[in-house]
Design brief:
The structure is a single chain. This protein is mostly helical and 79 residues long. It has a domain at 41-79. It has four helices and no strands. It has helices spanning 2-15, 27-39, 43-54, 61-78. The longest helix has 18 residues, at 61-78. The termini are far apart.
Amino acid sequence: MQRYEQAHAQKSATSVKPQEDVVEISSLGRLLSREDQAQGVRMALVEKVKAEIALGAYDKPEKVDQVLNRLHEDLNKLQ
């Protein structure tokens, strides 16, 4: 009986494989990571834009179009 238990224990121990964890990063995540590493956050520019928004500078359709066009160009450069 003891031999059977030992053989069964060895078989069980060798036939069970641990599952592997898998991490998937989306293409958007990779894009954002590259952008962050390449330029970092330019806090002076962020503060300037916040002030301009507070003053209403971005409430004009022309300004919104300009900002969206620049963002689109920047994103195309990263791809």
